[in-house]
Design a protein that fits this description.
The chain is mainly alpha-helical. The protein has 21 helices and four strands.
Length: 508
């Protein structure tokens, strides 16, 4: 049965390279291999060259870079699906024990959790958090059940390894802290509590054994209070304002119904985790995935008392996996390959032919692939790897807003090419710099592709320009896609009409 769970999750979570951040991780992993260690300073983002490096997810980049070297994109797709499926294997084992060995209950809840969480299981280091957290939870529940101290070893090992991949060890320690409170509520548990506390202290100490020491462990606290950074990231919008609102509501209803049924039999750890991550998910959509995994925990205990007839016990999980899996497998992003909507594959091909070796300004998420494909011949202005609001992000924002003096700022920054969409995702607003470049005699439109447009300086080395109608075609395509995700976006609908009119005016 565990093998079946892993196989189903693995098959469902096979995804193209849909998250543009993966290219940043590969760039860092490649440099780790070249140097034989974590780079001490920034090396590919032009405004930050020589400053102390913050490669807090270096282990993730190294792992995926080695996979890429071994088998290219296909190996990365397989590796990602395996890592994404492993937390559900741990979750199934936990749910099965809580449901009194009833496989149908555990399988149904795993399918529900898979549907809620899958949107965050695409080439992101936080997948390591889910694996570390639920492997730890399984070990702690086994210790709670039989008192064998060897199960406590999962906690320090998980925290040490996680600290090399993602700065989220505090969340695993929160899981352990909840189990400590559970232990303190029972006479037998109070005898074991000192051992659990010792394991937590050891885990915290081991987590500090990483290139950034205690800062890696405490980074989430600093990140949480960096409002200028948080305000510019779509995934940190409140859950109810995003396309994952329905997942947040389902997770909340599942957990709330379970607690209402259990009442006094509720584990304090389950309740505190549910409450904590309900607030975090409500505030920031990215936390909905972890909230969904947590919400099914009390549901297993609630279902333990329910004994279904054999035919229902087989049909319910099958229906749940089909309901969760079929839409994901039918999605265009399922299977191997690269998502060209977020990966500017053609831009580097054009830029490597140019004699101008200036820096490249890529719009936020596009800078990731540009760094991977052009370094060390070219540097980029920014990419999506940021744990604070830096000079790189400030320059990026000033240029793409086309603030007064933007042309002089482009020259001062040595920008020889700009790779950008025509519109902003989510809001559907036009990107000011894209429109300015389209109208400027000093820049030409050199490349159009699904990820965006490439502008280069109009000099003797420049290619033949594309007609401006191509830019408005691009804007219309972007806005039509945005409306499939955010159908109520008034700005997207208004700007789509403007794009179509502009395109028809230039190319009836």
């Amino acid at each position: 049965m565990p093998f079946l769970v892993f196989a189903c999750a693995f098959a469902i979570l096979l995804r193209r390279l849909v998250d543009p951040d993966i290219w940043t991780h590969l760039t860092i992993g490649r440099e780790v291999v070249r140097l034989g260690g974590v780079p001490p300073t920034e090396f590919y983002v032009a405004p930050l060259l020589g400053q102390p490096g913050h490669f807090n997810e270096w282990g993730f980049g190294l792992l995926y870079y080695l996979a890429h070297q071994a088998g290219g994109v296909t190996a990365m797709v397989v590796l990602n699906a395996a890592i994404a499926a492993l937390p559900f294997l741990c979750l199934f084992a936990i749910l099965r024990r809580r449901a009194g060995g009833q496989d149908w209950a555990a399988l149904t809840l795993v399918a529900a959790a898979l549907w809620i969480a899958e949107f965050r299981l695409s080439y992101r280091p936080e997948m390591m958090l889910y694996l570390a957290a639920f492997a730890t939870l399984y070990g702690l529940e086994r210790f709670e059940a039989d008192g064998r101290r060897r199960w406590l070893l999962v906690l320090p090992v998980a925290c040490f390894l996680l600290a090399q991949f993602h700065p989220s060890v505090l969340i695993v320690l929160i899981f352990a802290g909840g189990k400590l409170l559970d232990a303190l509520r029972q006479p037998e548990g109070r005898q074991r509590a000192p051992w659990l506390l010792a394991a937590m202290l050891g885990a915290g100490a081991l987590a500090c054994v990483n290139p950034y020491g205690a800062d890696q462990v405490l980074l989430p606290l600093r990140f949480a209070f960096d409002q200028p950074l948080l305000s510019g990231i779509t995934e940190l919008l409140p859950a109810l304002e995003t396309e994952v609102a329905s997942r947040f509501l389902v997770a909340g209803l599942v957990g709330a119904a379970a607690f209402a049924f259990l009442r006094r039999r509720t584990r304090i750890s389950d309740f505190l985790l549910f409450l904590c991550f309900a607030v975090l998910a409500y505030r920031h959509a990215r936390n909905v995935a972890l909230f969904g995994l947590i919400a099914v925990l009390p549901a297993a205990s609630a279902l333990a008392a329910l004994r279904l007839p054999r035919r229902w016990a087989a049909a319910l999980p099958a229906a749940a996996f089909l309901g969760a899996g079929l839409p994901l497998v039918a999605d265009a992003d399922w299977g191997p390959g690269i998502d060209e909507r977020v990966t500017p594959l053609r831009a580097p091909q054009q830029l490597v032919r140019s004699h101008d070796r200036g820096t490249v300004l890529g719009f936020f998420h596009l800078g990731n692939y540009l760094a991977w494909s052009l370094y060390p011949q070219r540097l980029v202005i920014a990419d999506a790897r940021n744990f604070s609001y830096t000079a790189s992000l400030d320059l990026h924002d000033r240029l793409f807003r086309a603030d007064p003096g933007w042309e002089q700022l482009l020259r001062q920054s040595g920008v020889a090419a700009v790779v950008t969409p025509m519109t902003l995702g989510y809001s559907g607003e036009f990107i000011p710099l894209a429109s300015r470049l389209l109208a400027s005699p000093d820049w030409i439109l050199a490349v159009r592709e699904p990820a965006g447009l490439t502008f280069v300086r109009a000099d003797g080395d420049a290619p033949a320009p594309l007609p401006p109608a191509e830019a408005w075609d691009q804007a219309a395509a972007e806005l039509e896609h945005n409306l499939t995700i955010y159908p109520d976006s008034i700005e997207s609908r208004k700007n789509l009409e403007i794009s179509i009119r502009n395109r028809e005016a230039l190319h009836p």
